[in-house]
Amino acid sequence: MKLPKSGRDATEILDTLNALKTKDVDWKGGKCFAYVYDAGPEAMDLLKNSFNLFMTENGLDPSSFPSCLELERDVIAAALDLQEAPETAAGSFTSGGTESILLSVKTARDYYRSIRPEITSPEIILPETAHPAFYKAFKYFDIKPVQTKVDPTSYEAIPSEIEKAITENTIMIVASAPSYGMGIMDPIPAIAAIAKKHHLLCHVDSCVGGMYMPFAKKHGYEMYDFNLSVDGVTQLSMDFHKWGYAAKGASAILYKDSALRRHQIFAWSGWMGYTVVNPTVMSTKSGGPVAACWAILNHIGEEGYMDLVGKTQAASEKIRAAIKDIEGLRLLGNPKGNLFAFTAEDFDIFALSEAMKTYGWYIQPQFGFNTVPANIHLSVGASNAPHVDDLIHDLRKCVTDLRSNGTPPLMNELPAQLLEMFENAGPELFDLLGSTLGTDGSDLPDNMREINNLMNLMPSQYRDQLLVEYMNRLYVR
Ligand SMILES: Cc1ncc(COP(=O)(O)O)c(C=O)c1O
């Protein structure tokens, strides 16, 4: 578009915006098992109203907007309480899990620069299940990733593998509570003990579990301890905009010792303008996310979260039982919460996600990596719970259909000439694969089955190269 010469009518604009959403996944019907966290219409209205109330306030300057400061202090205090943090602890409100992780990694790097300046090439150890946000942080802040194997059956991180990977350049160990892919809790007490023994920082990534697992635990579900009370854990990320049901743009990075947070804060007065002091990545920031987060935490409250988690746990267990019962499907590992994944034993799993799409379901395909096969991930939320029987019915039907009708034959292995082509290709790789992919990259394909199959067989570095090129084309200019 170009800027219109004269401004358009507001109603017409809102109609156009609403019409744009019609092609999106239908999360309102409870059939989308990813991306959206919906605690019902009353909660949604409160989020919108509280967000709107603070949309224009600027969290950049707490002296001009003490309201934003107060809201943030409250939200962080609630998070610290939930994670059983000691009095010494502190945290920051951030825009999401990725920002919390970026800040934690930057803090670790700068803290080590101050205490161990001889480490010029810092390393962070993380299991194969840790979230890509860490690798993003490593790229931004020039840290070497040291990836360790997880157990090939349970997908839990292996403490002894982590200890073996420690070198004189290690600064931090990462563990997940739980990891996203298969929803698995790592043995955090054992990992944190290793970190403490070697005088290393230990980050628990509880982005997806921080507002869920404390309540699941109170419901009596057995799991490893994972919060800030665990000896050796030094920092923890948790998102409100997932199972806290807050508006998007709401997460926290928490440190057991507030002294560590100092390494996160940026201040600059050496220029010809106003002084900048930012605890987090953003400078100018809307007060909307923190206000909506404060509102939803107060609205739902402990009893409300217990109720939401109770319903979600029951729904998750029902789906897991069905997966174990449906011939041809296999649940991966032994997940405790509302995130889990399953694979297909004898048919194309990517055909299943496409088949379910035709019944209106969005379930998320994931590529295989090392010991985990290609699979489908489900994140079950409160809004999905009433639709679980329908989901199981359609899942059963689609699996039966696919197993009896078969799907078109697929490559089991990439042809050697294709691999050779990857090795020598740059951005033109996309063009080379254009006909196989059935897209020139400028649009979103309807059916992802073939593309997913091809990418599933690619080594991950080529997959990433291809996806970077795809994104670069998709956003056009
Ligand atoms: C375990 C974990 N860490 C980090 C993230 C990144 O969070 P965000 O998408 O809010 O940046 C996610 C997202 O699902 C996650 O599950």
TrEMBL record:
Its cofactor is pyridoxal 5'-phosphate. GO terms for molecular function: carbon-carbon lyase activity; pyridoxal phosphate binding; transaminase activity. The keyword Transferase applies. The modification N6-(pyridoxal phosphate)lysine is found at K242. GO terms for biological process: carboxylic acid metabolic process. Pfam families: Pyridoxal_deC. Keywords: Aminotransferase, Lyase, Pyridoxal phosphate, Transferase. The keyword Lipid biosynthesis does not apply. InterPro entries: GrpII_AminoAcid_Decarb, PyrdxlP-dep_de-COase, PyrdxlP-dep_Trfase, PyrdxlP-dep_Trfase_major, PyrdxlP-dep_Trfase_small. Belongs to the group II decarboxylase family. Sphingosine-1-phosphate lyase subfamily. This is Aspartate aminotransferase family protein. It comes from Temperatibacter marinus.
